[in-house]
Amino acid sequence: MVEMMTLLSQCFLHKKWHNPQSHHCIWYGECGNSTKIPEKKLNCNYTGPPIPLPDQEGQDLLKDLCPGLVYGDNRVCCDTQQLKTLKNNIQIPLQFLSRCPACFFNFMTLFCELTCSPRQSDFINSTDFSAFNKSTTNVDSVTYYISLAFANAMYNACSDVQAPSTNVKALSTLCGREASQCTPTNWIQYMFDINNGQVPFAINPNFTDVPIGGMTPMNNETFNCTQSLDDGSGPCSCQDCSAACGPTPVVPPVPPPWTILGLDAMTVIMWCSYIAFLMIFLGAVLGAWCYRRRMVTSEYGPILDSNQSHSINSDGDATCCETLGERFENCLRVLFSSWGSMCVRHPLTVILTSVVLVSICSAGLTYMRITTSPVELWSSPSSRARQEKDYFDQHFGPFFRTEQLIITTPVNASFIFSPTSGGPDIHFSSILNITLLHQVLDLQTEITNLTAEYKGETVTLKDICLSPLAPYNDNCTILSVLNYYQNSHEILDRKIADEFLVYFDYHTHFMYCVSSPTALDDTSPMHEACMGTFGGPVFPWLALGGYEGTAYNNATALVITFPVNNYLNDTEKLGKALAWEKVFIDFVKNYDNPNLTISFSAERSIEDEIDRESNSDVTTIVISYVIMFVYISLALGHINSFRTVLVDSKISLGIAGILIVLSSVACSLGIFSYIGIPLTLIVIEVIPFLVLAVGVDNIFIIVQTYQRDERMPEEELHQQIGRILGEVAPSMFLSSFSETVAFFLGALSSMPAVRTFSLFAGLAVFIDFLLQISCFVSLLGLDIKRQEANRPDILCCVKLSEGQQVKSEGCLFRFFKKIYAPFILKDWVRPLVAVFVGMLSFSIAVVNKVEIGLDQKLSMPDDSYMLDYFGNLSEYLHTGAPVYFVVEDGHDYKTIEGQNAVCGGVGCNNNSLVQQIYTASLLTNYTKISNVPSSWLDDYFDWVKPQSSCCRYYNYTGAFCNASVVDKTCVHCRPMTTTGKQRPNGTEFMHFLPWFLSDIPNIKCGKGGHAAYSSAVDLIENNTDVGATYFMSYHSILKTSSDFIDALKMARELTDNITQAIGPQNKTYSVFPYSVFYVFYEQYLTIIYDTAFNLGVSLVAIFVVSTVLLGFELWSAVLVSFTIAMILVNMFGVMWLWDISLNAVSLVNLVMCCGISVEFCSHIVRAFSVSTKSSRVDRAEEALAHMGSSVFSGITLTKFGGILILALSKSQIFQIFYFRMYLSIVLLGAAHGLIFLPVLLSYAGKPQYLF
Fold this sequence. Notes:
Elements lengths: L26 E7 L7 E5 L5 E2 L3 H10 L9 E2 L3 H10 L1 H7 L3 H16 L3 H4 E8 L5 E10 L1 H11 L3 E2 L4 E2 L1 H4 L9 H9 L9 E6 L51 E2 L2 E2 H31 L24 H26 L1 H16 L7 E2 L2 H5 L5 H13 L4 E8 L6 E3 L8 E3 L5 H15 L2 E4 L2 E4 H4 L24 H5 L2 E2 L4 E3 L1 H10 L24 H4 E2 L11 E8 L6 H20 L6 E5 L3 H12 L1 H18 L9 H4 L2 H25 L3 E2 H28 L8 H30 L5 H37 L22 H14 L9 H13 L18 H12 L5 E6 L8 H5 L12 H9 L2 H4 L8 H8 L8 E3 L15 E3 L13 H13 L11 H4 L3 E4 L4 E10 L6 H22 L8 E4 L3 H4 L5 H23 L4 H24 L6 H27 L5 H31 L5 H33 L7
């Protein structure tokens, strides 16, 4: 920052000299003005002996600034005015370096010896003079002989000193270049360079450790940063002195992968297990086959008549459970038979009652709220991240909204800049060409001038932007390299040159500012500021991209960020911000400049694109459902002959069945809307698919069972349908109730998306079942009466000529009965089911390799402008999101102990908050923390020091007096005493803190806290105590979901350690990390547990319900649950093969998979359990023949056509999480339900007892 270096003509300490008469001065007092910097004075030439300071003020200043020169009568080579000049000129270095006493002591020694040493003539030689008056000359140039050992010691003590408010090292501000490029010699050369804009005369340092030409180099005593000073000051902190830190932290070793013989252990184990299974299984099959060849002909027998009544013969010694199961089965059959008969006898009553109830429930849709907020969708209000976000928002305000541009260029305009001050040539990339910079500035200016309309009001960027110095400075924060030039074309073009050379221009200013972004003066003759017009710094790692290390001149991208205020509960102001963002998006979308390639994002962009994506996929979804609807309507009909095609058609019944399915969805949405539970896009998109799968399957089972049934003699229609419903409704009840219970238990999940889906899905499935056994049965009865009356479908008012009603089996049923079922269950085919065990083994081997997270690119449409932005974000940006380490209300900052537990300077604990974050930043790749934290507490201590000009007040009024004010009535806040130089505590701490937080940084005091910390400290109890505070750092660049997850995990681990270190034993507060992305990624910390819990609870629910509804057949319930578990495990195998990550969306699909799998399995198992055939094979064949065709036509074919259409979606999330997963669910469910399960039942099904 500015006067930083006016350090010349003054400063501090030296070894005691014993014979002052043997040395002489080279100057004394101040004379004429400098020709280089007219506002600064030159020293008067004087070669006499040192002179005692004439007044008390001078002696006090000498004691304060250069205590090492205080000796005897204080004979020195400077007067009181020179000491005053010295004090003024060391203000900025004092504020940055005094946090490390040894560093500042050595620094002051350099300048005190130069300015006042009575031994000046030993190491300073005056080389040029100019006339001041007739009797006095000015000293225009000197050579300062400095020991190289002293220079190295001074540099080593200062090289690690931090500047807390800027998250960089202090030397980046004081050395004129990046701290990593600063050396002992170029630092001192820079401070003494007459061209730096601060030095009024030339000081030429000569570094040598041996005398030269009679000159003895200045080599006073120095202290290293680990030493205490003679005045009692302690050693520097670890943060400011790496030598004080002890051993460098070591990253914990990454656990080696679990291997066996160099191969993945799980893969080896599952291969071995599968091979062992094959050997045992095939051996058992072969042995059984040989045994049967000798004893019996075959286990396989012909299927009995398909119309035989299904009942268990309970004669004989059946167990208690079997007897109870038989009675329960009979009760269900009687109950549903009576119910079905009643529905057919009173169709209008049932239908009208259903319509009324559906209408009442669906009316709740008028209260429907759709949640599109990502926070509400992915983060539970009770989750830790959500509570921490709410705490942060309430105490410090919500995290600002971000509008950002990433600008590159296709133009090849790179060039070489040759500095006239010496040094190597500097390569500048194309994007830093001045012509392109002017074009970018034009674009930036156009954006800042954009206006929007909101409720008749004009909204500008200034109305909504972040202005950290408001109301004193209302300029908007714009993080752009063009703010190095104050966003001005004129300053960008400014240069100092002659006819031969350019000495200073935008190149030199750029190189200075990227090294010292907080500078208020670039120390060139142009005296341009690097600080932005908004009063804050623009750090190069935030405004540039595509460079290596600190070679900012090689940046290939410019990053321009417009932070905009966010609002918690102010919808008016938030509406204005949203309106301006919409204009911003439209403007940049339509901006055209062939020289610039722009990717961009606004805060509302993701939500806008998700909404657009949902709207764009409406057509795809509608086509998908239309295909399923058409198929259902056509497939329900069983055409006996071409002549009766119109009569046998069941299009109207199919449409009614579809409407019942949709009505159940509407009822579920309406009921929960009454309660006030908001919908999500997942609910709207997934539940119709789920309920259609479940509902259509049940519809096909009812209709096709009737079509295959023959009415008994003397049996009326209502009795026949009642009997049919008694046969199939228990199976429907089994599947629907299992799914309902499983879904409702899934609502125990802490993930809002999963919980909401489970609630809506569970209720929709159960309502669908109730409507199907009531309203649909009544409609079926009416449709059968129409068919028996020979009336055509749809045009039921027309009566055709009577014809003979002929019933025949459907093609699909005949295929399953005559071909498919016998083939699958042949003795030589059944062993091939071992393939499913191989699939299971493979899936178990890769289940832990499924990626966790959701790539944000997948949530965008294929044609979204955000895809380019996300790509450039990963490619060019060098710094991740800000991370705030929040100390909750309760910590006592007014005590020394409380301060030491948090701060990072001298005397602070080695395990303090700041120190632990600093240590974490040394392990960036591991901790994901890239910077040391900005510490308001450390900057406050520097600001309040009595040596500093920052903290002053008007002597008469007691009001705060800013450092830039020139007024003799302004006095220092604290006395220049030993006590005054210590940290403030108690009431004194709170007395000055509000002044610090309201002080605006200026050229005299760069430590003012208003810009950096005004929102970081929550003052409570009328400014008499400190509440919650935060310390800000940055994450490293995070590119993948695993990076974000690791960053959150490591930040929490760090703050847990900090909480343990700083808090009392009975603490009621803690330290927590907060970053804007935490609420979205916290779910992945527990996604494995959530997945296991949700799927486990669903399986347990299915097992329990199946056990009861299968007549307490425990083993049958085990087989159902086992098959469903296999389907779920195989889904993980598909997810690994098809690059589908595990997240909330895929978890919802897995929960849905669990429900749909019940449909594939439960009907087959129940048909097997009630079959009266003698052998397992026969019973499995009969179950597959009767239920397999309904399951295949009701679920598999219905879904298959609709799913294929989803592949045409523009949405990547639809293609991956819906098309790929839905297709896998249907194919795996069909394969296991129609192939694996019947074979499993034929081998391990519960045997039938016939006595």
